């Protein structure tokens, strides 16, 4: 028998489609739509939880930043008050120096008030704008602030060491009492042979 297309059997439809126009099974469509709906609901819940968590984290960060900002403002204000007190002792000796010292203290206290009145994003924006307009002054001020912070940390470390009875590990440099106690100074210490260096 010769091969012609009429001799081949009709292919059977696959994938659950019927022979009448290829329409899908209604039960299969309902199952697929239920799965899709469940997936959309789960995605919406995950998105909602993520949004709530992000909002809570942002609120916590803002609260911590506000607390630290207020602490910094209070510390700067206390420095201003202390400088005013020291300026009072200078008033009799040198009124000009006392006037300049009071003026510096007033500036510190106005800075403290400025920090108290502004929120963190506004302070950040102001600092960025100042840094763009006056980069040398900004970085110079950052260096000075770093030196002051280092001095404060060093002094507080000494105070802590004294209060706990530990030796002062912050002291460096020449100690004239070391020689009278019989301790070797760094200049008197034997140097390492050249071969070891």
UniProtKB/TrEMBL annotation:
Q: Where is composition skewed (Basic and acidic residues) in this entry?
A: 53-76, 175-184
Stretch list, region Disordered: 1-76, 160-197
UniProt biased composition (Low complexity): 13-26, 187-197
Q: Which organism is it from?
A: Opitutus terrae (strain DSM 11246 / JCM 15787 / PB90-1)
Matching entries from Gene3D superfamilies are given as: Helix hairpin bin
Record protein name field:
DUF3618 domain-containing protein
Give the taxonomic lineage as stored in the record.
Bacteria, Pseudomonadati, Verrucomicrobiota, Opitutia, Opitutales
